[in-house]
Amino acid sequence: MMMKWLWRYGTEDIGLWKEVIKAKHGELTHWSKNVSTDAYGVGLWKSISKLWPDFAGNVTFRVGNGSHIKFWKDIWLGDTTLGEEFPSLHLIAAEPNSTIASNRSDDIWDLRFRRNLNDWELNDIFALFAKLQPCSFSPQEPDRLKWGNSRKGYYTVKEESRKGITAYAQGT
Asked: Superkingdom, according to UniProt (predicted)?
């Protein structure tokens, strides 16, 4: 049941409860909050935020306008992050935490690196552009979380049980 709160945090844009959590604990990304390290007063949210690694391993992203999905760090194209698939390019990315939208300009890819590419990196950049080529975007639609391979694409406790994911923080 606690993972349901992570799903709500990532999918609901409006809510006093979300604003209070962001104000008190900070926001790591649009989808998740920082794991709380306070020693007191945050037991429930500390337990919930500790579930983020398990939760994140079961979500992918539906790209809308690309304004919230991290280009290199989120799983949005394939089964792994682009940073893991192209580590040499991720290492020299000018903005490794950039979003998909910030890497596009007038409907073309505009990737920026801290230095010019070396000859041995050209195969990687060609492979990356080949992977990016069929991507489509919906500028008027927001980015959305998608729960694993569920038929409906959203999180339910039933889906969690079906996948055998534990809903309790380890060690708490």
From this structure: Eukaryota
